[in-house]
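Quarterly update, task 2.4: FE3-S4 cluster-bound model.
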Amino acid sequence: MAFDIDMIKKVYDQVAERVNAARELTGTPLTLAEKILYSHLWDGNATSVFTRGKDYVDFAPDRIACQDATAQMALLQFMQAGKDKVAVPTTVHCDHLIQAKVGAEKDLKSAMSSSSEVFDFLESVSNKYGIGFWKPGAGIIHQVVLENYAFPGGMMIGTDSHTVNAGGLGMVAIGVGGADAVDVMAGMPWELKFPKLIGVKLTGKLSGWTAPKDVILKVAEILTVKGGTGAIVEYFGPGATAMSCTGKGTICNMGAEIGATTSTFGYDESMERYLRATDRADVADAANAVKEHLTGDDEVYANPEQYFDQVIEINLSELGPLLNGPFTPDLSTTVGSAMTEKAKANDWPLKVEWGLIGSCTNSSYEDLSRASSIAQQAIDKGLKMKSELGINPGSEQVRYTAERDGLLQIFEKLDAKIFTNACGPCIGQWARYSDPKNAPKNSIVHSFNRNFAKRADGNPNTHAFVASPELTAAIAISGRLDFNPLKDALINEDGQEVMFDEPTGWELPPKGFEVEDAGYLAPLADGSGVDIKVAPDSERLELLTPFEPWDGKNITGAKLLIKAFGKCTTDHISMAGPWLRYRGHLDNISNNCLIGAVNAYNKKTNFVKNQLNSEYGGVPDTQREYKAAGIPTIVVGDHNYGEGSSREHAAMEPRHLGVRAVIVKSFARIHETNLKKQGMLGLTFANEDDYDLIQEDDTFNFLDLDQFAPEKQLTLEIVHADGSKHEIKLNHTYNAPQIEWFKEGSALNLIKKQNA
Ligand code: F3S
């Protein structure tokens, strides 16, 4: 589907030279991750060795993918960049804004009507700027990317954290904020700290009830939700090559749940089979010609401890099916009696109300075929469903083929609801309750990746457990969380005891994939005539107004908007949930600015002192009053400020509302970059105890901002309400080009100026 074979061949034409140059320079054999990173350097061949976990490096990604919720702000920014076309192949996928309620046909119609404004906007911007557009219902971004665009040895970025799914086809694929994507769309380099490397050696072979999902559930148990931070996880060994390509995708996908930068597998026959099955024989042929460069060196895999920063070994022959949850994806329990005990000890409901199969993690043809083999057994053995079942196929191609082959009809015989090929319940787009906040305590099992409280249905009392699609089907049929399909019998409608046989399925459809309308719209070759319409009174979309450039003067007389106490993630700064609706309207979404941050002076959220009238009020309203009065403000924060999602709204909202500086003990890296990109001052206390000096009624004067320069501290004068003063030093990490972003008002303003 319009994949760019010429671009892929260009990558392969230069891979040997670049990998050899890197090997010579480092003087060591290379992992796959290093080969991909070194062959995608912005400056071409490597000229210096990068230190893992330390050096910032400029890369040249091959592709970009955006989903509808994040694409709105990314494209609104790109529209300001002054470019006629995107510089690298880019696609937009409409998958997040479709609610699952009654079934695919009606749900899709209803989304098309309720979000038509957003879909029309994304379609016309795509058409204008040469971006491939995947219509609502075409599928979930990462499944569609795997089927159409991912290629071994490639590098892509995407405005979604599960972009990492494409590692299943041997890519280094990384989730980023929209501002980063805009840089690459505009033809600029993309910066990343050279990651650390974790090797996972898979021995043995998956069999019976054990699925690729269990591998990543096990890895999550071992590494926990933070264990992969700042690292690429590279899988290798006989267990890896024996696994399907989409199974590898499942494992890489959930690498996001251990905080990994990304995960990947070396090119092998399963990938070749998948490429050929998805109509990309030319990519498979091109990959075969350079295949030694599309996997790690033999020496690396023979002695992994010497080359990876950490090595984990898992014997797949000894791995059993797992259930992870509730509320966190790294809490692992073996099926059966271990779950009985844990559930009783923790008061988790053992009765299962729903089983959900789908999401970008587990919605391939293989997933549906293995789950349907269990559903078919339930029909054949006279079992009745004890809970409800919902299915979200990953793409229209998967759905069409699964329907042609009778798989969906098997689920329907069990009264399953077939929802749209979209994210649906995985992103809370599930109309399960009319009043989720007061809904009852219950358990559900799903094959998704995230199971945080309220994630699927908005009910804080829903205990969500993550499992493979086949185990999800078996547990949904049994209605019990502690059902062990390897040991437990169920009673059928005739009162007989029956047991499930092991699941069976097809890695790829035996009759090949088929689809009538995959849902792809190619952009116009010349989009200059496309008019992008955004209604001036729209509540969901708003064209961006460029941020004001710096006036060259020291910021003086600034007031404190909020001193945030403790953890302040991007969710605290720009909440998700119902605010998803305003992702394309900066002014409206700014009404959630910092409403989740805890005020250090009263430990309340969204309740700060307005120094203009000494009254307390919400953060956005208070800030709007400062802005109206022309008074600059600052935000103060604790450690790791801005951790979590890469959404740039968390930087754009305070900027839009008139905050001038964010001063913290330390930043999460992506958020610090996002602040810099939006022309904001992101600074850290040189002495972190100075955080304690800041009082609610203080006024702030920057004394030497007019001499802002790389590696030079800034001086801040704090004037307390009683007139006493402190002078403190602030650190920053701005290099010379980043200071230009600040001076121009934003990185985008600079791009625009350079293109004028
Ligand atoms: Fe969508 Fe859930 Fe994946 S929201 S992109 S299916 S993680």
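Highlight for this quarter: The longest strand covers residues 196-203.
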